Amino acid sequence: MAEEEILKRLPEIQTTVITALLDKKLSREETLGNIIIKRVGWGRRRLDKYLFPFLAFRLASQLHRENPFNLSQAIMANYAGLAALIFKFRFPSVPYLLTMQSGDSPFFFFIRTWWFYPIYRMVYRKADFIQPISNYLSYRAKSYGYKGPIKIVPNGVDLALFQNEIPNEKIISLKRELGIKEDETVIVTASRLVYKNAIDQLILGFHEWQSKTGRNATLLIIGDGNLRKKLEKLAEAIGAKRVIFLGEKQYRDLPQYFKLADVFIRPSRSEGMGNAFIEAMAAGIPVIATPVGGIPDFLEHKVTGFFCEKDNPMSIARAINEILGDNELRRMIVKNAKALVEERYDWEKISGEMNEVYHLKLNP
């Protein structure tokens, strides 16, 4: 998503993206403007994922011989990073750019990489240039022994999409569809339903706040993941009222759900950056988050949002209560957050910064 947003604004850069097939319904090749997408594998998710570094390297080598690349770029230091590392060993004169986006915890990476740790470190150390999306990921690159140039370029937000006015009739219709009453408080999150995003803590915190205040409220959970069934059972087990799992939604439909909401919350356990936070800020919703990973790059407590404590439902409940109980503070936070997003996180600005990175490596 981020790469497409950037590259479509840089039409002079012709890009070939190699990715895994993962789904047999997808075509093996397609073109989106200046981007050619090539998919490798057999449409068998697990097999394609594990073999991707070797399949991608083989195809990239073939394409490079036919029409030499000026730059290789790996999006995240996982399977793509391994493919780029192998390519770097085979074609050392081609500059290698590593883009870091993953927000998983250090422990998550350790348990998945300890058995080939020296090779995994080389994914970072052999890069000619690293572009993390947050200060947190910049520190991670250095912790793996990288000593080269780094430029932090965050992900952005489509301001036109998230600041677009939603017709009142649409909001009323959506509320009716979801069974939301006019006087009801709406809390929303947009998250993969995985451990790092701590949606279990959000459900517990929402229930704690609702039980203590007696407010009519709905929690909308947008997204899917391997913990969905467990989270649904948790909400049922504690008797949480009005927790609605909406599943995956089209990106273009997110703003209408955000416009329903009074607060956006994601109490992450770890986070590379978190696009959903700045999208909520752009939409004019006050944000509650934890001070982990890349979040402090854009969220300052009681200035551009609210911090709650990690793994502390009571802290979430207190933050909800405070932000809904102080209208002046809420208005100030929304104003500051929107100004920050417009100044720093517009895709047009981000694309310009990435253009500098690309040309730095294209013309060393």
What string, H for helix and E for strand, traces the elements in order?
HEEEHEHEHHEHHHEHEHEHEHEEHHH
- What does the largest sheet look like? 6 strands, parallel
**Arrangement of strands in the largest sheet:** 9-8-7-10-11-12
Q: Which parts are unreliable, with pLDDT below 50 for 5 consecutive residues or more?
A: none
Number of strands: 12
CATH superfamily (homologous) name of the largest domain: Glycogen Phosphorylase B
User: What's the domain count?
Assistant: 2
Helix fraction, binned, reads 40-55%
Tell me, what's the shape?
Answer: globular
Number of helices: 15
CATH fold-level topology of the largest domain: Rossmann fold
Radius of gyration: 22 Å
Approximate strand percentage: 15-25%
Report how far apart the termini are: 27 Å
Which structural class best describes the helix and strand composition? alpha/beta
CATH architecture assignment name of the largest domain: 3-Layer(aba) Sandwich
Mean pLDDT: 94
Task: Using the coordinates above, name the CATH class of the largest domain.
Answer: Alpha Beta
